Amino acid sequence: MLEKYKSAMKKMDIPKELIEKTSEKMIQQQKLLEQTNRNKKKPYLYLSFACSFILIIAIFYTIHNKSNDSIILTELIPNGTIQTVNVNDGILYFNNLSEEADNIKVNQNFGIPDSLKKEWTKEEYMSYLGKKIELSYLPDGFIMEKESIHVYKNKEGIIKSDEYYAAYTANENQRIELSVRKGKLPSKSYQGLAKESEIKQTKLSIVYIEGLNSYQAQFLLDDIGYYLSVENITQEEFIKILYSFFY
């Protein structure tokens, strides 16, 4: 059983130190069980359960490492921007967009003018989306500064548009903004202005605005439109935030 455990761990690229420490604990546990219970079947039953439990922990350890530290395959530049970045399950194109293009050339998607704006609770809106939306990866030091939900209905009470917005800040300069909309892209669209990126067969538009030190991404996933914008954080952190929506 111990040899099978070691073999399984090596295949998953678990650190050698973790394997050795766990193996020592398994041996100690086996000896303790043999001393306290002379029934030959039970010690091995407990040992088998322990191996399964440890295997589950090791799998989660591997998934966590791969989903955070190994998603970026291209070597990035500290405090710089690489325009083409290979990642697990995709490729990201960072299109350099001027501040003027960001303000003028994008296609705006605001609420319907003749609709009535309604405010919903977060629980009501997430139920409407059919999915809980949140940043599962947030760089150290960031806290939520603002959160709002607006739903636009016509006179008959039919929902014509909606938007969820959340802003996170770490200091006066660092900022993360997330907008979500059901069925379409929120706020503004870079479609046609940016070369399409891809993560897990989902198309994305990603731009980099050098004058603002800002990365922005838009994509549709599970019939929900996302708009992610960050300022004054690294390209690596931006990619990790972006990737968190896909796992």
From TrEMBL:
It comes from the Bacteria. Keywords: Membrane, Transmembrane, Transmembrane helix. The chain crosses the membrane at residues 44-63. This is DUF4367 domain-containing protein.
